[in-house]
Amino acid sequence: MGQTIIDKLWAEHTVADLGDGATLLYIDRIFLHERTGSVALKGLETAGHKVRHPEQVFCTMDHIVDTTPGRSDETRMPGGREFITSTRASAIAAGIHLFDLGDDRQGIVHVVSPEQGIALPGVTLVCPDSHTCTLGGLGALAWGIGSTEGEHALATKTLAVRKPRSMRIRFEGQLPPGVYAKDLILHLISRFGASGGTGYAIEFAGSAIRALPIEARFTLCNMAVEFGAWTGIVAPDETTFNYVRGRPFAPGPAIWDQAVAHWRTLVSDADAVFDREIEIDCTQLGPHITWGTSPQHGGNIGDAVPDPAAEPDQNRRQSMQRALDYMGLAPGAPLEGLPISAAFIGSCTNSRISDLREAARLLRGHKVAAGVKAICVPGSSQVKKAAEAEGLDQIFREAGFEWRESGCSMCFYAGGESFGLEERVVSSTNRNFENRQGPRTRTHLASPATVVASAIAGSLADVRKLKGN
Amino acid sequence: MEKFTRLTAIAAPLLRINIDTDAIIPSREMKRVSKVGLSEGLFAGWRYQSPGSRAENPDFILNRDPWRKAQILLSGLNFGCGSSREHAVWALHEWGIRAIIAPSFGSIFQGNCVRNGIVPVVLDNAVIEALARQVEADPENFRPTVDLTTCTVATPDGKSWSFSIPDADREMLLEGLDSIAVTLKRDAEILAYRERDRSRRPWIYLPG
Fold this sequence. Notes:
heterodimer; A: alpha/beta; Aconitase, domain 3; Aconitase, Domain 2; 5-stranded parallel sheet; 18% strand; globular; B: alpha/beta; Aconitase, domain 4; 4-stranded antiparallel sheet
């Protein structure tokens, strides 16, 4: 029987078989950020352990930093400064790579790590951050861990992990207009539930995935964790190799061919058997929007708010009812046309240069509706620089968007900033949990294109109907 | 780490599905670079009347007697999904929770539990719902027992259910092991792996 890509990466990184399905896996790269990394580095110091191989450990500032222009170590969050200064001191003492404030490599961890060539096809990469699965887009075996596991990885360069079951999800067919990688993953989660992938490592495959550019693959894999999966991965191909070549920490010319030859082997064998397979016909999908407080609460922009009474499962029904109460929505109300007061483009899901280019293309010549607070936060300092070189910042500003410094920002109160009480926000982020973007803030998750169309309309909108698109 | 062997305690039912770690501890409650002092922020969005206030919401289960002394939590599918923040587990532990019974858990959260002395117990939803009804009827006396030596949950009416937990997780909880010390016993194997791998994948090894 053939091997899946997960089987191959597992075998390649096995240090020891620990029995009962557990393996001691070698960890190639560790990334930290100032919120959960700070406490891991401090915990390690307290326990008297050293960071083993600091040259393979990286740290950026993204979760606590302010994103308003002219920022410093100060944040609006009480105690925020301590996270930044403590992380800086620990990172310098440990001798790890630090992408500090003011460094042009700074940015959101999962935007920076592929951008700098730190995440590569076939590497094991961990970070005390749930969205580490993003890097599966490159064919990396990457997953989120807690701070204590982070300490273990830092001290030993290994983690003891139980091998997850395998699932392959084939997305087939051409994406219709207005449908992006974000819509694919939101559709998957709404159809199979937020725990539909629990216990699985998922390979995303199929003709639609092969056609996706790398940055869209990051968006897709980013939300594997919202599906409950241990991680998601896309097998590396020419698109991947072209993306990686020449990046600062990527293999140089002397070993490039050797690396690519190895990466080409990292595909599931034709006769590999997965524990579960799902196929999705992309040609039938539309722009997706969430209406509730779990990523599984969503549907097409043309749908109405569902009626909990029609849900046979009692737990799901109660969850839907709670969500509608929180979101201030009634069953049967159309989603399209629902007035919003804020629009947000940013986060490790959708803040890369291709996201900003597409958003700016749609935004050109339009204005954000009166009364809508619109914010764009580039995912990294490099993304911001590239966008400004192309004049994208001008398009955002002229349309009425704020243009920020890079960081996690209002995806979740980073920098102590949040949206208002019961404010309705359309957001390119990954979580619509209660209070995530602010106290009682009502979040609707969507692609950056849907965020732009909605910002212009002043209400949830169908990007396919945007004039000039 | 604190050891866990067996516990008989008041159980609080919080039967919602997909309780995420943002709900367990909101970002705004993680104010210091520290693993302690987090219990005040536990379930802050539900436990207090308004954001930032400390006036208790009297309807929330953990604000009611005798559940203020609960050490076991009963919950729904996918408990602890979302953010990897271990602060959620530190907050639960500091508040007093030692075992959580749910049909499934967020995988990072589940890993964080066993590294901090909390037992994640997986039981069928129907069993949990039945337990919740009995606990609600008589919380003071109907105290479930979570026994990690036998991997069972038992109730005062004589019923019991087996649960499974990976050997390594069970051992870590029973012995209160320091996992770094355990792994470093395999240092020779780790070094041998590096030697083998360095010639196979030289691009992984950055200059030190």
